[in-house]
Amino acid sequence: MNIKNTAGRTTAAALLGGVLALTTALTTAVPAGAAVGVVKDPAGDGRTSFKSGDVTKVRVKHGPKALRLTVSHAAESGLADVYRFNIDTRPKVAGPEYVIGAGIEVEEWSVYRARGWKGVQGEELCDGGADVDFDGQKMRVVVPRGCFGSPERVRVNLVTSNDYPGTPVDHAPGKRKYGGWVAAG
Ligand SMILES: [Ca+2]
Predict the structure, then answer these.
(1) Domain boundaries, given as residue ranges, for the chain
(2) What fold does the segment set 35-183 form as a domain?
(3) Cα(129)–Cα(137) distance, rounded to whole angstroms?
(4) Which residues surround ligand 1, an ion (CB under 5 A)?
């Protein structure tokens, strides 16, 4: 009996130690000052005969200075010609407030105010270079938060298309749907 109790306590202590270790690992996995969200989308759901631009994941890293958006694609999909990130910052106002558009050929991104889900309005607010990795089938943009009003939180919808302005190929995580809110780190 004593042996059994001792063994039980040992096991519980070991488990608790394991949980604490896991908690520590999870806490330290994300660097302080950066919040990260992931928008997932199925492979194979492209809507046109163009295969390229089939998005599987958008990683949203909302740091104190910049928003980093990294797009992953389905195996052998290839990159899309055009990326339109619809950025929502105000939940009570219908539709996205900003658009970050990126072209693969020019390897640049631009920020505009959104006009609903499809258009943009006004002058370009910011622009910069996109990081395109053709071998890894990834593309990334790093946009200063000041370009889109330094919001406390954002949620992201991505539409890819080919042959600009082109028919949309893929919507992540779905047509006129966003990933979860990501607060600024
Ligand atoms: Ca997809």
Answers:
(1) 1-30, 35-183
(2) Immunoglobulin-like (2.60.40)
(3) 17
(4) 41, 45, 54-55, 170
Between the CA of 161 and the centroid of ligand 1 the distance, in Å, is 12
- The answer to whether 139 touches 132, Cβ cutoff 8 Å, is yes
How confident is the prediction along the chain (185 residues), in pLDDT tens digits per residue?
444 444 444 444 454 444 444 444 444 444 455 699 999 999 988 766 667 899 999 999 999 999 999 999 998 888 999 999 999 999 899 899 999 999 998 999 999 999 999 899 999 999 999 999 988 999 999 999 999 999 999 999 999 998 756 678 899 999 999 999 999 98
Cross-strand pairs, 55: 73
Q: How many whole angstroms from 57 Cα to the centroid of ligand 1?
A: 8
∠ CA 162-51-173, rounded to 5°: 80
Structure token pair of residue 22: 């896991």
CA 170 to centroid of ligand 1, rounded, Å: 6
